[in-house]
Amino acid sequence: MNSPLLQVRNLTHSFLEGDEKVHALRGVSFEANKGEVTSIIGPSGCGKSTLMYLLGLLEQPETGDILINNKSISRLSDLQRTRIRNERIGFIFQFHFLIKELSARENVALPAIKKGDNSREALKRADQILNQLGLGKKLDRFANKLSGGEQQRVAIARALINSPSIILADEPTGNLDTANSEIVFNLLQTLSRKQNLAVILVTHNNQLAKRCDKFITMNDGLILS
Ligand SMILES: Nc1ncnc2c1ncn2[C@@H]1O[C@H](COP(=O)(O)OP(=O)(O)OP(=O)(O)O)[C@@H](O)[C@H]1O
Ligand SMILES: [Mg+2]
C-alpha cells in the first residue's frame, strides 16, 4: 500500500474582485500517493488552478492545511516554502512558458542553475532527461523552433530537473493534438510509476482523466467525488 505523500485538508481560498468575494475553494480535501497519477476535472472556474497554486506553495490557503510526508507546510515561512517548492515540486502548465531565446537544454537546466547547482552539471543532467524523453537530437534547438508536443516535453523535463517528488500539471495537454496528448500523458504515467512521483493532473479531457489511478471531480470550489 502506498503512503499518501500529499494530504490536502479542508482548503479554502477566496479572491476579492472589487467589493465582491469570489470563493474559489470552499473546503477541498483529498490525498495523493507516490507512484500514482491523480486527475482533477471540472468546469472552467471551479477552482482547479487555484488549488494547483496552493499545492505549489505559490499562495497561502485562507484556511485548511497541506501536508507533505505527514508534515504541515502551508504555514511555514516564505523562505521555507520556497525551498520546499524548489526541491520537491515540479510544475507543468498548459502554456509552458519556455524561454524562446534559450535552447531546449538551457531551458531545462535553468531551475537547477537558479537553485545554485553548477551549470555544467545541470546542463549534463538536462541532456540526460531530454534524452529519456526522446529529445536527444534536439538539445540545442531553440525552444521556439520545436513543435508544440516537443515544447511540452521540454517543459516536463524542466519540471523534473530538480528531482521533485510531486508534479503539478495544469492542463499540460490543453494545447496539443490527440497524438501529442497521448505521448505527454503516457510520459507522466510512466514517470509517476518509475520514479515514484505523485502526479496531480488537471485536465478537461475526460478520457485521459479516467485512465488515471485516481479521479477527482470538482465543481464550484468543492470536490464532488
Ligand atoms: N487572481 C484572481 N482574482 C480574482 N478572481 C480569481 C483569480 N483567480 C481566479 N479567480 C476566480 O476564482 C475562480 C476559480 O478560478 P480557477 O482559475 O481556479 O478556475 P479553473 O477551474 O482553473 O478554470 P479553467 O478550467 O478555466 O482553467 C473563478 O471564479 C475565477 O474567476
Ligand atoms: Mg485553470
Description of the molecule:
The chain has a 6-stranded mixed sheet with strand order 6-7-8-3-9-10, sandwiched between helices. The chain has a 4-stranded antiparallel sheet with strand order 2-1-4-5, with helices on one face. It contains 7 helices and 10 strands. The chain has one domain (4-223): P-loop containing nucleotide triphosphate hydrolases (Rossmann fold). With 225 residues, the protein is an alpha/beta fold. It has helices spanning 48-55, 78-88, 104-115, 119-132, 148-160, 178-194, 206-210, and strands spanning 4-17, 20-33, 36-41, 63-68, 71-72, 89-93, 166-170, 198-202, 214-219, 222-223. The chain is 36% helix and 29% strand. A hairpin with a 2-residue loop joins strand 1 and strand 2 (20-33). Adenosine-5'-triphosphate is lined by residues 15, 17, 22, 24, 42, 44-50.
Q: What are the main properties of this structure?
A:
binds adenosine-5'-triphosphate, Rossmann fold, alpha/beta, binds magnesium ion, six-stranded mixed sheet, 225 residues, 36% helix, four-stranded antiparallel sheet
Give a quick precis of the structure.
The chain is an alpha/beta fold and 225 residues long. It contains 7 helices and 10 strands. The strands form 2 sheets. The chain has a 6-stranded mixed beta sheet with strand order 6-7-8-3-9-10, sandwiched between helices. A 4-stranded antiparallel beta sheet has the order 2-1-4-5, covered by helices on one side.
